[in-house]
Amino acid sequence: MIQRRITVSNFDEVPRDVEVFAAASAIVGGEFLPDDDNPNEMLGWITIDQPVVHLPAQHATDVLVTIAIPADAPEGEQYATVWAQISSPKATGINTASRAGIRIYLSVGAGNGPPADFAIQSLSASRTADRVPQVHAVVINTGGRAIDVYGTVSLTGGPGRTSAGPFDTPTATTILPGQTETVTISLDAGLSVGPWGSTVALTSGLIARDETATLTFPDADQNPQSPADATPWWVPASIGVVAALVAVGCVLYVARFRKRRARDERWTRV
What we know:
Blueprint: E1 2-10, E2 16-28, E3 31-34, E4 46-48, E5 52-55, E6 59-67, E7 76-89, E8 95-108, E9 118-127, E10 133-141, E11 147-156, E12 164-168, E13 173-175, E14 180-186, E15 196-204, E16 207-215, H1 234-269
């Protein structure tokens, strides 16, 4: 049995009734996402001592979450979220809800299972369509449990021995065991092309890994043309037709000139 206490807070100036419940989650494309349409077995193992909490304005309280894992539970990882939700009915009859949650990663197995671990495979640089430079770190989960990876990138040794950063990841990237995901960090749009010495430092819990590389960002002026800026198809075709007509005209002119010259020479001999 696993028991944890979570704190539910009301930061509003009015009292609130807060629903506390568990719902299934999934890891998709490096994100930990709600998966309400596909409940898993773990939802039947979770109980919450206060499914509805009445909170006065600017107050908080603790809620006890219990996970009772049965003896015949299947091995493997399951994911869920404990949500605290406030519903607000509208005059139009449409209900809106605001919620915040705490993730649950549950690994069931005969033993503790392989420890969590990851490695940074490579670093690369790019620039977005609106000219923002980015650093991409390809990360593989080499352990036995899902991990949330986040961190920073720092630049040194740029033009004029300049440095920049650290720049933070906007959100954590969630990676399943054995899977590979790309962690992307956006930098300041005003950074020069480089080359730069880059250091990416990533963490997941107590695990920390870093990787260095020399990176050069694409020149912002060398972005591929947009369709609106591209030359219409008929322009090169028209140029080709005009060139062909000019060539034919030159050939006809030369032929007429030679014919007239030969005629003039014949009359001169007579």
